[in-house]
Design a protein that fits this description.
Layout lengths: L7 H8 L18 E3 L8 H4 L6 H15 L5 E2 L9 H13 L7 E10 L2 E9 L4 H16 L8 H15 L1 E2 L1 H4 L11 H7 L1 E2 L1 H14 L4 E6 L4 E8 L2 E5 L28 E3 L1 H6 L32 E3 L2 E4 L7 E5 L7 E5 L6 E2 L5 E2 L5 E4 L2 E6 L2 E6 L4 E7 L8 E8 L2 E7 L7 E7 L10 E3 L5 E5 L3 E3 L4 E3 L8 E5 L5 E3 L4 E4 L3 E9 L5 E9 L7 E5 L14 E5 L17
Parallel strand pairs: 5-6, 25-32
Antiparallel strand pairs: 1-3, 2-4, 3-4, 7-8, 8-9, 9-10, 11-12, 12-13, 13-14, 15-16, 17-18, 18-19, 19-20, 21-22, 22-23, 24-27, 26-30, 28-31, 29-30, 31-32, 33-34
Helix pairs in contact: 5-8, 6-9, 8-9
């Protein structure tokens, strides 16, 4: 099982300066800096739940966000009067977890100075990698993920998409979890999204980063007894457990320190579990102060079966997947609750060779590339044309030796990364990269966009996004796909034309047809202007003697019209 088993000695080596100073609550001068070693699996919601409704938590988060955004060396929080206590430290940890859109390069270790029993300054510990590098890498990957969310996707569908994306694109660092040498990045969202290399905390924080943009309420959940972290997510008002790390299982290869990442494999048996359901999969000892996960809707859902180990691919509102109990069917599930149906028959022969004779019955792994859904066969690759749901030949691997088969597959840019092995446990194995572009086609290398990506328009108004283009300009496929993550706030057509719907803030994504590159725009929709419909003047007529005065009153309708300015003029001022 995939957990982080990191010794205290290693934590000190990774996180502490050469002179180790542990936290102490003894009296000291304000100039004394006290170092607090990060505690990534402390149940921080056990002691701070009562503070969640207090303004001090929000005030602390506001000060920290401002400091983290610029990597401030010291952050002054003296105005809050927070005591030197574990409760305050837990509030700091919580602020990191709950603000991953800003704190993606902040470690849980920190130092503080204090005076009179209250903390004056905080000194965060940042990653050594420059923030600009971290931000660019995270956004590039996150934007690709967000661009896969279809318009009108439900909360359930958004959570499913995050689970599958991270399980597909992140490799669990078993060596670090087992106490080996590693870098601090594996504990952060940057490790997962920027480097594709993480332990459980990195998976969980990356999920929190993505959920921020998808308007999904989510929290970091941890267990000291398990030395493990995962997420709690809220779907349709109900809280559930989500452990993406355990949904990305390793192979059982003894030659790779407890296992290695499997290309294309995604599990769902730790997706949206109740407290009882997550306990049944081996979890225990999590934060007592977290919201109760009482919903049991998905504890026995179809995806909890071990036969369901492929990623899901959304197409026209259906989530396509394969299933090992009938491994030559491409099935569709209308999420949630719709009946499963077969949408295409996968046309390949034989099974995956097994050492010692016989074959394995496995579900092919699937991945979308444009309007094609590729899958691995025992001897190569085929694809289903999504527009017609018809199966087509594509690639046969030559030189397969002995009982080698194509056991794994994942699409990476314009290539299918396939893995040849003699057993499903992938040892020994051989990696092959198969071009997916047609022969002679010019590959897409990027997607350019305007420097300014913060846009504002009024409800009911339109705004054309310009300057978005595939690079190079002579690429074989210069198409750009557009989608809005919140169509109740703003919609976008396939030409990049925005239409404001209701006041609020939403994100709009532009992506290349192959899904390899994407750009994100933040759109603020303001209230539609209220136009003046009429002006009434009272009295309607008046007789005034020379040298005398009278007063006219103008009334604008409607009375809440934006323009309340009245300009008076006379047709005969002589």
């Amino acid at each position: 099982m995939k957990k982080r088993f990191l010794s205290l000695l290693l934590a000190a080596m990774l996180l502490l300066p050469s002179t180790l100073v542990l936290a102490t609550f003894a009296a000291a001068s304000e100039e004394t800096w006290i170092y607090v070693e990060g505690d990534d699996f402390r149940p921080v919601y056990a002691s701070t739940q009562a503070l969640q409704s207090q303004d001090v938590s929000a005030d602390l988060a506001a000060l920290l966000r401002a400091g983290w955004a610029t990597r401030a060396e010291n952050i002054n929080i003296s105005s809050l009067g927070l005591p030197v206590s574990q409760t305050t430290f837990d509030m700091y940890y919580r602020a990191i977890y709950e603000n991953q859109d800003i704190a993606y390069d902040v470690r849980t270790a920190f130092s503080y100075s204090y005076s009179g029993g209250t903390i004056a300054l905080l000194k965060p510990k940042y990653l050594a990698t420059p923030r600009a590098t971290v931000q660019a890498a995270i956004e590039a990957t996150a934007n690709r993920m967000l661009a896969t969310i279809p318009a009108g996707a439900t909360e359930l569908e958004r959570v499913l998409a995050v689970n599958d994306f991270l399980a597909l694109h992140v490799a669990y660092n078993q060596a670090v979890a087992d106490g080996g040498a590693g870098t601090e990045e594996v504990y952060t969202a940057y490790g997962a999204l920027g480097l594709g290399d993480a332990v459980c905390q990195g998976y969980s924080l990356a999920a929190l980063y993505l959920f921020k943009y998808l308007n999904i309420n989510a929290l970091y959940c941890s267990s000291s007894s398990m030395n493990h972290g995962w997420n709690l997510v809220q779907v349709n008002g109900t809280w559930y457990h989500l452990d993406i790390t355990w949904n990305d299982p390793l192979s059982q290869s003894a030659a790779h320190s407890g296992g290695r990442d499997v290309l294309g494999r995604v599990r769902h048996n730790n997706l949206l579990r109740s407290a009882t359901g997550i306990t049944a999969t081996g979890h225990s000892g999590w934060d007592a102060g977290l919201p109760s996960a009482t919903g049991t809707t998905y504890d026995s859902y179809f995806w909890t079966s071990s036969a369901y180990s492929s990623a899901t691919v959304n197409y026209n509102g259906n989530w396509l997947h394969t299933y090992s109990t009938n491994n030559k069917q491409l099935r569709a599930a209308g999420i949630p609750g719709a009946a499963l149906s077969t949408t295409a028959t996968l046309n390949y022969s034989g099974g995956w060779n097994a050492e010692g004779g016989g074959t394995w019955t496995l579900a092919p792994y699937i991945a979308r590339y444009g309007n094609k859904l590729f899958y691995n066969t025992p001897t190569g690759l085929r694809y289903v044309a999504l527009s017609t749901m018809t199966d087509n030949a594509f690639y046969t691997q030559s030189g397969l030796s002995g009982v080698q088969s194509v056991y794994e597959m994942r699409v990476e840019g314009d290539y299918a990364h396939i893995r040849l092995a003699t057993t499903p446990n992938n040892d020994p194995y051989q990696d092959i990269f198969v071009p997916l572009l047609e022969p002679g086609a010019i590959a897409v290398t990027g997607l350019s966009a305007p420097i300014t990506r913060d846009l504002t328009l009024a409800a009911t108004a339109t705004l054309q996004i310009s300057g978005v283009a595939v690079t190079p300009s002579n690429a074989s496929d210069t198409g750009v796909q557009w989608n809005s993550l919140d169509t109740s706030t703003v919609t976008v057509d396939q030409n990049g034309l925005l239409t404001g719907v209701a006041p609020g803030q939403a994100y709009v994504l532009a992506s290349t047809e192959n899904g390899a590159f994407a750009q994100r725009f933040c759109v603020t929709v303001t209230a539609a202007p209220i136009a003046v419909e009429s002006i009434a003047v009272s009295p309607g007529s008046a007789t005034v003697q020379r040298g005398a005065t009278t007063t006219l009153t103008a009334t604008i309708s409607p009375n809440d019209a934006d323009n309340q300015n009245i300009i008076w003029s006379s047709s005969n001022s002589a």
